[in-house]
Specification:
Helix content: 40-55%
CATH superfamily of the largest domain: Glycogen Phosphorylase B
Shape: globular
Order of helices and strands: EHEHEHEHEHHEHEHEHEEHEHHEHEHHHH
Radius of gyration: 22 Å
CATH class of the largest domain: Alpha Beta
Largest sheet: 7 strands, parallel
Length: 375
Amino acid sequence: MIYLTYGDVDSPIYHSQVVGFCDFLREKMEMEVQIVAFVPMRLYFAQKKKLAAYGKGIKVLPVVNRFQSNPWYSIFNAFLIKRMNPASIMTRNPAGLNVCREIQREEKPFFYDARGCQHMEMEEFSNADQAAIQEMKQNEVQCFKKADWVFSVSGALIEYFKDNHRYKDHNHSIIPCCVLDTDYSKKLSKKELFGTEDVMVFCYAGALSVWNYPRSFHELCKAILKNPKNRLVILSHDLERLDGERLFENERVLLKKVESKEVTSYLGISDYAILLRRSAVTNRVASPSKFGEYLMAGCQVIISPEIGDFSEMVEKEELGIIYRGKKDNDAIKSLKVTDEVTRARIKKLAEGTFNRDCELNMIRYRNLKKLHDGK
């Protein structure tokens, strides 16, 4: 199988959701998989070097933007892929639609790895012009309708395309963003970090972009810091965003830039982890990988309403609380330290949901294996 990425560049998400996923297909599903990465031409040499570091034989090709709208360009790129003699093809970016359709015309299965609603992401969170958004929308709708099987990160995403784009509910599986195998045994202690075990720790890990830093984030942090026994940990490479914010110039706030592999050490001592998003279609159909990482560490989650399928899951499974802003500050006051029984329950649920090779997800991936094998 060819796993096609189009315009994506190396990142922790690429590592987890592309490289990690393809490793899973090789090791657990016994499939031969070749990653083919079409990257922006200006980043070609840098990305080729970075992707080569994975040691997975990733084939890196440049995207020539001025040819993008020409039908012959997709035919040419498909010709390059056909020379690899794939049994099937999968893509995560609707921009790869025409290449995948060319392969599909030779009766090779086409799988769409739907990671979110990309045309709405462009509309809500970018400066893209309407022509580019419409092109992405058309391609994305066709990916849902023409793929032999769709793997969606949320039921909310499926419902959105059914309600808005006449997608018919017949050829999909719902698998949330899974997490890489991570050693959660290495952790700090509250005493080591704060000088005492008698504290409750709230942790945020991730970017501080327009997606992840809504107005409610500030309100939540204020509510947390009203209790002198609470501690707030923010792990991000965007800490400059907080410069001049007096709220975070507090001895009970720890701001750190750490590598991804170090984050689990801090989650391991955190009672609650923070996952807030602004209200937008992009977020209502999303599956933030951070949610699974938080639960795998045994943290309860403070989450915004309507984040994919996860907000409902938090309420149903008692995994934390929904935070809507100031009106929920009383709920923050009443929070208790996460005990070991609760932490163990959350970890168990996470392992059965966010590990790719858990029993439930292995069943869901059977259709991929069957179609790939021509059965």
